[in-house]
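Lecture notes, unit on binding sites. The following record was shown on slide 14. It pairs a sequence with 2-OXO-4-methylpentanoic acid.
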Amino acid sequence: MKLFVYSLREFDEKQYFDYWCESCGVTYSSTTEAPKPHNLHLAEGYDAISIITTPMDADMLAVLKKGGVKCVSTRTVGYDHVDIKAAEELGMTVCNAPYPPNSVANYAIMLMLMCCRRVTHILKRSELQDYTLNGKIGMELSNCTVGIIGTGKIGRTVIEHLKGFGCRILAHDLYQQKEVEELAEYTDLHTIYRECDIISLHMPSTEENFHMINEEALSEMKDGVILINTARGSLIDSAAMIAGLENGKIGAAGLDVIEDELSLYYYNFCGKPMDNHELALLRSYPNVIVTPHTAFYTVEAVEHMVKNSIAGCLHALNGEENPFKVV
Ligand code: COI
C-alpha cells in the first residue's frame, strides 16, 4: 500500500509513521501542510491518505478519488470534518483512528478541578505576586453533582475516574450502558441541567446536537454551574455561553474546544492580531480556561492515532474486516 500523509508533525508523529509503516510494509510520503485544493495533487497515485482535522469536502474527495485514492483515514476519533456522505457516494472508505480514552478523560477531570479551585485566577494573580486569599476560595469536586452528557468510551472513563472522588454522578445518553448504570444514575437532560454543579460534554458533533447548550438549556441550569467541553465546539452556542458567563449563570468554564476553531488550532499566531472576538472575550475572563484542543495530546494517544490510521487504510485496501471503518 502507498500512503500519503498530510499535516505530518515531524516532532511527534514521524517516528511512529516511520516505525509502523516499515513494520507493515507500507510506503509513505508526507507533507507538513494540511490538505487543501492546491496540494491534493501530492496524493496522486497513492492508495490512501491520512489527515487530521482539516475539512475534507465533496470536491476535495472527488479530486482525490480521481487521483486513485481509495481510502481517507483521519488520525482522530471525531470525523465531523469529513463529508462522509460524499465519500460514500464516491465509493471511498473513510476510517477514524481511536486512541485510549484516558487522555481526554484525564484532561476533562483536570479542567473540572481547575474550575472548582479557580486555578486560572490564582495563577494570574500569583504572576503579579498577589498571594492574598481574597477571591480564591474554591469548592470541592467531591461534594459536587457532576453531569456527564455522552457515555461513550470517553464519558464512561470520566465516570469511572470521577467515582474515586466520591461525587454524585448523573449521566445522559441516547444509548445506555450496563457498566455505566453501576457507577452513575442515567437521567434526562432536564434533570442534569437542574441538579448538576458541573456539566461535562462527551459526545460527537451531529446536526441534532448543534448548540444543544443554548440560552434555553442554560436557563434550566443551576446558577454558577461549571461547564466543561472537551468534545466539540459546536455543542455550545458561544454567544449564549458568553452571556451566561457575564451574568453569573455560568460560574466557570473549561473549554478545550470552541466554535470555529479549525482555522486556529494548531497554528501559531504569536504576535498577530486575531479576528476571533469570541475567543478574545473567553480568554479575558478570570473564570474561563481555554486550551487549544490538547485534551487528546499524550504520547500514548499519538502513537495509537498513527498506528490505527495506518491499520485502517491497510484493512480497507486488503478488503479485511475493519474496526476503524466509518463508511
Ligand atoms: C479527536 O480525536 O476527535 C480529537 O478531538 C482530537 C483531534 C482534534 C486531534
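Take-home: The chain has a mean pLDDT of 97.
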